[in-house]
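Support request, priority: normal
Reporter: lab tech (M.K.)
Component: structure prediction queue

Hi team, I submitted a job for ABC transporter substrate-binding protein from Chondromyces crocatus yesterday, and the status page still shows it as pending. I've pasted the exact input below so you can check whether something in the sequence is tripping the parser. The sequence length should be 310 residues. Please let me know if I need to resubmit or if it's stuck on your end.
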Amino acid sequence: MPPRRIVSLLPSATEIVCLLGATDALVGISHECDFPEAIRDRPVLTSARVLSTGSSRAIDAAVRDVVRDALSLYTVDQARLAALSPDVIVTQDLCEVCAVSLDDVRSAVARLAHREEVCIVSLTPTRLDDILDDIETVAAALDRSEHGRAARTALKTRIEHITHRASQAPLRPRVVSVEWLEPIMLGGLWMPELIERAGGLPVGVRTGEPAPTLTPEALKQLAPDVMLVKPCGFSLDRALAERDLITRTLQPALSPGGRLVVTDGNAFFNRPGPRIVESLEILAACVHPELFPDFAQKHAAALHPLDGSE
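Reply from support: The job had stalled in the queue. We restarted it manually and it finished. Here are the results:
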């Protein structure tokens, strides 16, 4: 059987496809797919209606305006998609802000001449195990089930190893992860589970539930010992561009002696794919630096602690 022609409209799905050894079969990607480096020359099939420039508050307002008008945040280049003639399209049905919606993909596929032959794989992970399940789901669609099982086992082994190391900690600090800066949103879905596996106590959130929005006063009531700031879609440098906002509205919520670390929410944490394990490593280094100096060194480029002098 010839390799299946794959289109991925989700950055995490692109990483899964590559993990499964199907990089050469990837014929199209979304405008947000940027990892691994080898896929950056593929045709880009999507664009965003909202620019990612401006402040966190401005971006949030622009997104809400588009959604209020009942518009999708993203568009699909249907002509280019048809020309690529994919056998498999991987998308998501979890967050209208994160990527092209399932309905948009179905609409685009309906216009393809060979639409009955296109397999649409929609991913909807809300927990850590869902992310691992999705690897096997994509693998099955690509006729690579054995690769999927092996990849899942390897990632699960790494996760359990980190969990065991973190369990040796005598204390479990109160931890919040910040998903958006203004308004303040906390990381939901799989983030509470990652915090627990890193040896922390997630506060203000529950595993599997969407990101809650808090006022600065409500955040302060949580009294976190550790705060991980990783705005969705923001690189570390982009997040630090709003350093003043972070120090003014987030830092005061820390308990006495608490730690605030800014990290890369675009490459890690908010991508439910293979690098969720690297995300757990980063989190472990922040929650228990005394137990994970190796991870702190490994991910030093993605970590920026802020103290009261900044």
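The domain at 169-306 is CATH 3.40.50.1980 (Rossmann fold). The first strand starts at residue 6 and ends at 8. Let us know if anything else looks off. Ticket resolved.
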